[in-house]
Amino acid sequence: MSVWTVYDHPTDFPNNYVARRFEISEGGELKATDSIIISPDLETLRRVLLVETGLTCLARMEGDDPKIVETWI
Question: Which helix (H) or strand (E) segment is 30 a member of?
Fold first, then answer.
């Protein structure tokens, strides 16, 4: 299963929002992939994740890193 995590101006892309794809194994282990989507605008990034991939947005959880905006599955 894949999940995309959206970050608010992470250190490696300080001028953009970034969505990074992670793979979840059957055992629940999370592994980062090389797939990323970069946009200066959060709404554009959300539109790509919704329209082009058909994913569903999940709000960030209380214990998430402050740079995390949301996750898409």
Answer: strand 30-39
